[in-house]
Amino acid sequence: MADPEPEKAQLSSSLNMSAKKELLSTAMKRTSEWIFSQEIPSDVTVHVGEASFSLHKFPLVSKCGHIRKLVSESTDADLATVELPNCPGGAEAFELAAMFCYGINFEIGTENIAMLRCAAEYLEMTEEYAVGNLVGRTEAYINEVALKSLAGAVSVLHMSQSLLPTAEKVKLVSRCIDAIAFVACKDSHFSMLGRASDIGHHNKGLPSKPIVDWWAEDLTVLRIDIFQRVLVAMMSRGYKHYSLGPVLMLYAQKSLRGLQEVFGKGRKKIEPQQEHEKRVVLETIVSLLPREKNAFDLS
């Protein structure tokens, strides 16, 4: 009997490729609409990954320092093609940045702010080139909106994982981690005060039944190395090591599903990369385990 797994993988790959081509086609169609609305023929084609955008040099060079340099330093006086192979966030992020250059309104939110900030950095969209440029706009949203709530900070941090190293360069990762640690420790402090009256027994001064805090679920979407950095930041702010037990348990339950099938008897076949990732998760969690008794008593 034929193994259905390769067929499923091939089908999934085909569907992903089809969806990708459809998204790129939609992006190029939208840019064509921008050109038509300007009633001026495009004079530059910008290639970002597999997507091509037919645009105008003037709105781009007026706000994008990186593109201005490429145009000015080119030996071709009528440079008609610009390559941006390393734009963070790819075609989706560049499309939004281009819309900003054209003065087209779009909504900024926690789901796109990370790639917008990183794309703006890559394109050098600073105040040096235009007042109220994209770097300043995104920074204002990050500081005044995104990092004001734990959900916002976690969402931005989650999106930043695919935008390294630029997200590290603009300190987006470190700022999100600090904001999460601050909120989590603040919440833990007040919740522990509220629980004090319900705790009848202590083991060497420690609560005998740790409770999973409301924010712990949000952290399970983070990559293990980023998750570890969050916990280290929390402990540096005074979060008690023994309180990590329930948080680690929750993360392990989410990220190590099927572990017994992989490493136990009758091992299930798994790709080397996936096996390595699960090993790293397991080893990291073990290294973070609290040493106090009853740290995992969730009953």
Automatic annotation (TrEMBL):
Domain named NPH3: residues: 213-299
Gene3D superfamilies the UniProt entry points to: Potassium Channel Kv1.1, Chain A (3.30.710.10)
Family of the protein in this entry: Belongs to the NPH3 family.
Listed name of the protein: NPH3 domain-containing protein
Keyword Phosphoprotein belongs to the record: yes
Pathway(s) served: Protein modification; protein ubiquitination
Pfam families recorded: BTB (PF00651), NPH3 (PF03000)
Organism: Cucumis sativus
Keywords, ordered alphabetically: Phosphoprotein, Ubl conjugation pathway
Matching InterPro entries: BTB/POZ_dom, NPH3/RPT2-like, NPH3_dom, SKP1/BTB/POZ_sf
GO biological process: protein ubiquitination
Domain of life, per lineage: Eukaryota
